[in-house]
Amino acid sequence: MNLSEELDKIFEEANRLIGSSVDEADLDKNKNEYLGKKGKLTSVLKNLASLSIEEKKTVGQKANDLSKSLEEIVSKTRENLKTKGFKEQSEKEWFDVLRALGETEPGTLHPITKIQYEIEDIFTSMGFEIWDGPEVETDFNNFGALNFTDDHPARDMQDTFYLENGNLLRTHTSAIQVRALRKLKPPFKIIGPGRVFRYEEVDASHETSFYQIEGMVVGKDISAGNMLYTMEVLLSRVFEKEVKTRLRPGFFPFVEPAFELDINCQVCGGSGCSVCKQSGWLELMPCGLVHPNVFKLNGLDPKEWTGFAFGLGLDRLVMMKYGIHDIRYLHSGNLRFLKQF
Ligand code: FA5
Hints:
This protein is an alpha+beta fold and 341 residues long.
């Protein structure tokens, strides 16, 4: 066998052996057997010295080519072994990430969200549209357009978080009625649920951030009777039973006459507790007939249009419905509390 034939034989052997490597260590060993310092292919090259110049050229070239091809076969095989390795590892070591968490429990709606959805259903069934507005509002939308003059004492009724740019965190959802008044063509009926913010002392029935639902109806000849009927429907559907309410005169610059609708405290049944401050009643839903100035300030003619508006305290409604004796539970994130709903 001449040197060239010997090279062919070695290449064939090497190709087979390298291709059958079972893992990377085996591959390194096999590679070394042919391409290492003392490898079979390397040793053939060492014998080149005994050949003629002509043979040296052809056999040398052939040996170089074969050695390059073998290097390529080695790197291909290494890649295959790596992929195979990952595959085998993932088959052996897989685990169910969800199972690793243990028992999972489905989430539930927060009681405030639940009642909000219920109220949205009640009002949409009466033909109301649902309106939204941003939590950061302009002073004008929150106060100015609602007939609060700059020095109006009512501004102090709702301690306000102001932002550096002159805007504020809305103190009530009445800012949503302003947006509706400016966008919609009367007649219209809207409700506007949302989160509001006030710089207040926190106690059993007061939070610094809470939820309200604004309601507004604008049309021809809207009366206090229409307003009271709407509120009765709302309360009887939410509570699914008769609840005692009372109306007191109220004061808000954007409604005239203004009323406070109180609900008989459902936590103590009216006998007095920390939620109702021992009075047996809880302030729930102020309301009134839209003040003519509000129509004027928002581009509508008060001689042509009438309306009513109300602002329901959603947290307090939830407290009354479920007999919750402290508003702070609602924003606590306490799962033991929330799971009950
Ligand atoms: C207002 O916010 C008026 N914008 C409501 C209104 C709308 C009047 C339309 C007339 C026409 P008031 O500040 O009273 O009003 O708040 C309304 C309701 O929000 C209260 O009756 C109460 O249920 C709830 N509320 C007020 N302050 C808090 C508080 N700190 N924590 C929880 N609920 C509150």
